[in-house]
Amino acid sequence: MQNRLALRYAEILKAAFLRPLTVMVHHRRKIIYLLGFMGSGKSTVGAILARELRWPFIDLDVTIEAGQGLTIREIFEQVGEPFFRTLEHAALTEASKTEPAVIALGGGTFAQPQNIELIRASAGVTVWLDCSFEELRRRCNGMTNRPLFRDAASFAQLLEQRIPYYRLADYRVPTEGRTPEEVAQQILQLRLF
Ligand code: S3P
Question: Is position 167 within any domain?
Fold first, then answer.
């Protein structure tokens, strides 16, 4: 168990640190990627942030749904998660060509090493909307378009698996007890550009 965990961390660190030089020499591009778990507010905060900045807003899940003419739940049901991840990567590849842009990722987007690599190579800024397990669960309760939101135990396990990836974001913004407007203001105050 200990060994498996160590190997997993080594994998994550490899994805995070092996390619930073290419990014460091690049100019930072005007792309803000919002990441975080289901229910962290990526879509709501992203729309407000984009409006404030007068930048286009791209919600990755919405783009995928529009491209397939299916809801996220239907995509999971009909073709499964691995194919959803392929669609997600393709949508991210397209989205990352837009500048300026605020891009709301899906909860699992920034937990796939190939996406982390793509995002880093795009030279945008990553912001993690952090939130407690209890609050995330409360916000997701009753939502039907989240195939990976099943029971409390699997939700907690998934969050635990994702946190090491989320920690790789450039910025962490706590969202607990804050309205989406307040979170967007916090991001604006980071003076990213
Ligand atoms: C997922 C989160 C969802 C959506 C899909 C998979 C995940 O996005 O992309 O259901 O793996 O956590 P939200 O975080 O916007 O709910």
Answer: yes
Task: Tell whether ligand 1 has an atom less than 6 A from the beta carbon of residue 139.
Answer: no
Domain of residue 70, CATH code: 3.40.50.300
- Distance between Cα 193 and ligand 1 center (Å): 28
Query: pLDDT tens, 23-37?
Result: 455 578 999 999 999
User: Residue 19 phi/psi, 5° resolution?
Assistant: -120, 25
Host domain of residue 83: 2-188
Ligand 1 pocket check for 38: Cβ under 6 Å = yes
Query: Longest C-alpha distance within the chain, in Å?
Result: 48
What pLDDT, on a 0 to 100 scale, did the predictor assign at position 145? 82
Instruction: Calculate the average pLDDT of the chain.
Output: 90
pLDDT at 10 exceeding the cut of 70: no
Please state the atom number of ligand 1 nearest to the C-alpha of residue 76: 10
Q: 149 CA to middle of ligand 1, Å? A: 9
Give the whole-angstrom CA distance, residue 90 versus residue 92.
5
Q: What's the total number of domains in the chain?
A: 1
